[in-house]
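Lab notebook: predicted structure, single chain.

Context: the supervisor wants predicted structures on file for every construct in the current expression panel, including those that have not yet been purified. This is the next one on the list. No modifications to the sequence; it matches the entry in the shared construct table.
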Amino acid sequence: MESPRRPRLTPAVADIRRAVRELLPPEGLVLVGLSGGADSLALAAATAFEAGRLGIRAGAVIVDHNLQTGSADVAARAAEAASRLGLDPVLVLSVTVERDGTGPEAAARVQRYAAFDTALAKTGASGVLLGHTLDDQAETVLLGLARGSGSTSLRGMAARTGPILRPLLGIRRAQTWQFCTDAGLEPWSDPQNFDPRYARVRVRETVLPLLETELGPGVAGALARTAETLREDSDALDELARTMLRENWANGKIATDLLDAQSAAVRQRVIRFGVEAMCGVWLTRVQTLAVAALVTDWHGQGALSLPGIRVVRQDGMLIFSVL
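Prediction complete. Output recorded below exactly as produced.
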């Protein structure tokens, strides 16, 4: 097999290496979240190459979700691939995905990110690189639109979220497959990626191709650009709301006239963020609007009881308490 550190420099190899180089830290250790699929394998190979050039360390973390027969063998092959690429350390972490009512994909995601936290703590790495592509971003936005989600979902995935780094959000999935071909790498094909029981698979295999056929090429890129624009707007509104909270929220209280003077977008964020920080409760949009009505549609109504919290308007203040 051609050396993964010196594959033929094709456009796919150059583009993915460049994308990785832009997000790597100047020093220390990073880990690649490696499943063995084309996206993460191309990411691992590019990271190994670029880390070597920068003089930093790069390892890998493989999460065995134990959801399929033979998953331990798949994880072992991914670990072998990581070692051949020169990544070190290589961690294989086994998790148990519990059915918690959120669906298997969401439950697996929770355990996967918990495993990443464990890997960071064990190794002292500064971050974990994940192989989410532009296609994944487009699927996320489209699913959010279909579910009527707000900007939190439609903003998609960020390139940098704490220690999680996603350098391939501007790279198409086809490019990662081409990288593997050009570099002589053999990616694993996850059968769950073709299982139509999963909504994301139906979006990937049916909905997006249909949109591209009916509306013309470029739909995936347009959805990804939409996410980027919404993320910029959402970040600005979030910062306004958090600043207001820091300056005006005290002991679970905030003035109603202050909230009434804000735009709906800021007012509702202040309510959500305040409740989250104080009570550890995440309000739905319907619940947030019910609280906001104590400000914008006040006609003497009594206390509002929601899961985990109680809200009452009294003496020109909204007062929040934990149930």
